[in-house]
Amino acid sequence: APPPDDAPVGEGVVSSRRAPSRAAGEVDATVGQLANVPRANASDVLRLAPGIFLSNGLGDGHAEQVFLRGFDARLGQDLEFTVNGVPINEPAHPHGQGHADTHFIIPELIDSVRVLEGPFDPHQGDFAVAGSAQFNLRVPTRGAVLQYRYGSFDTHRALGLWAPEGESPGTFGAAEYASSAGYGQNRGYERATANAQYEHRSGALTVRVFGASYLSRYRSAGVLRDDDVAAGRADFYGTYDATQGGEVARHLLSVEVESNRRDSTLKAQAWGSVRDFRLRENFTGFLLDVQQAWQSPHPQRGDLIDQNGRSTDVGARASGRFQTTLGGLRHSLEVGLYGRFVSVDGTQTRLRSGTDIPYRTDFTLQSDVGNVAFYVDAELRFTRWLTLRGGLRGDLFQYNVLDRCAVSDESVRGAPLDVSCLSADRVGYREPFTRRTSGGFALQPRASLFAGPFKGVTVAVAAGLGARSADPVYLGNDQTLPYSPATALEAGVIYDRRVGDTRLSARALGFYTHVGQDLVFDETQGRNSIAGSTTRMGALAALRATHPRFDVSAHVTWARATFDDGFLVPYVPQLVARLDASANGPIPARVRGRALTLSGGLGITYVAPRPLPLAETGDEVFTVDAQVATRWAHLELGVIAQNLFDAQYRWGQYNFVSDFRSRPFPTLVAARHFAAGPPRQVLVVFTVHLGTAAARHGAPTESP
Questions:
Q1: By C-alpha distance, which of 338, 111, 85 is closest to 206?
Q2: What's the rounded Cα separation, in Å, for the pair 225 and 232?
Q3: Among 325, 324, 271, 281, which residue's Cα sits nearest to residue 303?
Q4: How far is 615 from 569, CA to CA, in rounded Å?
Q5: Using CA atoms, how far apart are residues 554 and 642, in angstroms rounded to an integer?
Q6: Cα 32 from Cα 138, distance rounded (Å)
Q7: Contact 216, 247 (CB under 8 A)
Q8: Which H or E element spans position 228?
């Protein structure tokens, strides 16, 4: 059963989780007690899903790099992200197609996360190649929370959360401010975030209004060469360029209406957002700015990339689900529509080393991307133990791209020296811009067959087609297939039963995915570039046991990702294992008649060595995070230790040619590079709980 609305914070409750409705790899998990496991941000909640590994060595404020089931989804290109139904992925983003930054979500508001690994649900849209992740924000415990944490590297975080009593769990407001000097050199950050939602229920009608605002400014140390660290020319937590970093802003508003009746559910939602983005990064040092014959004599000015993007995003969705009973069995049919329009002004320039002065334009695009979709989703029950779910989705993608720098870095007779965006080509005079338009339709059937449960055991088979919209940087005019198709298959066994006070959920499965045109990281561009078609095959096993006094989640995933010519896809870990565990209970002591409670959480991650370009292999990653807290009445004091054993590990790992002027005689031989993971960080957390539920926490059962 779900936790009651007034369940005290810190007391264990059995998490509510729906049985998988689409595939054996679907995880729909209430965070519950596992909120006691240290998590740095909203994306960390995704670790509850099998096979997910997160990496982020480029700054606290930079979107997480996501690895899932043999996919290097980078910053979201292969995983569809939504929050309360609003899409997060950003098409046409200058830092990479499908860029998904979840830092605007306050983690304490995440009640549950649904991760569907694979494109098996007709509701899944653009970027659902490896799967989708849905963040659901609710606050079941009513009242207010004031929290302050301070710790290593002068890290501060202040949080205020208000869930007014008498309102539904969908009504809340929260704000946070955080800052830190950061570990090592050039890793400081500062951010402010606000999330709020109002949910009003009247009979069968529910109305939700959700808003979010987010501002972040952060610094990035970038990458280091392994040989420079080994020789003592650079510190493990050092940097080559202190001008790297970024700024992000996002403002979002969503309105949703839902009508629930006995045999029908009608939903409608509309949203709008504006976003601003800037990032400066350098992966190759002083390698690319070579002297060309048509240029004025110049020194190597450096490879520092300056990416800028400003976007407007509006969209809407609507659906109707209808149920009927035939032959004593319940069946349903849903029809839905989806529309989204994103306009992005994106540029990428190169800056002179140590300055903010651009000397070259890589691209400058005004991209308008439209996506209109329909879907039909049905559930047919043949018997009480055999169910077929699925349907059909169709996505129409349309692009209108103004390339304002169509001729760049070419030798053109009579053209001025050192001009990036020329008004001439080899034929003669021309305007410096060009326009490209394209469009295409992706038809995506998806189906899942469930047999069971038989004493808690269900066998599931799923198949589906997915699609990723094209990156406008590489889009041609009238391109016939402006998206990357994906085909996915999965078969597995699910076990889900309650044994006494413990809820047990386990699964084991195998999977296969083929992507028609993939994207792989290119260090010279600082973003992903087009690659060939790829195939993923693998298997996973997962277990979760939830009890009022403990909650344990463990999973391991093996995946092999190859190009169709047989070579391994670089950067993708072949083995990922994760353990999340928490426990809570009363301390045999009382203070002024009230009991003290103790809670703790543990998170362990293991990632096997990753394949790198040029047949190299990276290093493994093994980290342990822990948290312990004690609470009395309204007051709670806790300690968080991230990277408890102070492991020195390489979060991001690469292999390519660079020259950071760290030695007198540079070499053009490819070298190992890395972005350092954070060392041990200890934080002290003080929390004040206010409200009726907080007042009951640890209250005496009889008068003192």
A1: 85
A2: 11
A3: 281
A4: 10
A5: 19
A6: 12
A7: yes
A8: helix 226-230
Are the beta carbons of 34 and 460 closer than 8 angstroms?
Answer: no
Q: What is the DSSP letter of 174?
A: E
Give which of 114, 36, 119, 104 is closest to 64, Cα–Cα: 104
Closest CA to 80 of 503, 401, 393, 318: 393
Residue 593 to residues 370, 701, 703, 704, Cα–Cα distance (Å): 62, 9, 8, 6
In b/e form, how buried is each residue of 541-576, taking b as 16+ CB within 10 angstroms? bbbbbbbeebbbbbbbbbbebbbeeeebbbbbbbbb
Nearest to 514, CA basis, from 493, 484, 540: 484
Q: What is the DSSP letter of 108?
A: G
Nearest to 368 by CA among 387, 388, 345: 345
Q: Give the 3-state secondary structure of residue 153.
A: helix
Which amino acid does the sequence have at 515? V
The amino acid at residue 459 is V
Amino acid at 446: R
Q: Which of 535, 530, 617, 604 is nearest to 573 (CA)?
A: 617
Of 630, 644, 638, the residue nearest 602 (C-alpha): 644
In this structure, the number of other CB atoms found within 10 A of the CB of residue 478 comes to 10
Those residues whose C-beta lies under 8 Å from the C-beta of residue 197, and which sit 6 or more positions away, are 84, 137, 170, 171, 172, 173, 208, 209, 210, 211
Q: Which amino acid is at 618?
A: G
Q: Which two tokens stand for residue 76?
A: 């979201």
Contact 20, 584 (CB under 8 A): no
Conformational region of residue 143, where left means phi above 0, alpha means psi within -120 to 50, and beta covers everything else: left
CA distance 559 to 182: 34
Beta strand pairing call for 519-522 and 502-515? unpaired
Distances (CA, A) of 117 to 241, 413, 451, 461, 468: 38, 54, 20, 13, 15
Tokens 């800037």 sit on residue: 278
Token pair recorded at residue 678: 């954070």
Among residues 404, 383, 397, which one has the least CA distance to residue 437?
397
Q: Give the list of residues 6+ apart from residue 202 with CB closer than 8 angstroms, or none.
A: none
Contact 257, 243 (CB under 8 A): no
Backbone angles phi, psi at 19, to 5 degrees: -65, 150
* Three-state secondary structure call for residue 602: strand
CA atoms lying within 13 Å on the CB side of residue 386: 2
Over the chain (704 residues), the average pLDDT of each successive run of 10 is 33 43 89 91 92 90 92 90 96 93 96 93 94 95 96 97 94 97 95 97 95 97 96 96 96 97 95 97 93 83 96 97 92 97 96 92 95 97 94 95 85 70 84 92 96 92 93 82 87 93 95 90 85 93 95 96 92 95 90 88 96 92 97 94 96 94 88 95 96 70 41
User: Which phi-psi region, left, alpha or beta, contains residue 426 (left: φ > 0; alpha: ψ -120 to 50)?
Assistant: alpha
Return d(Cα 450, Cα 452) in angstroms, integer: 6
Residues listed for the chain: 704
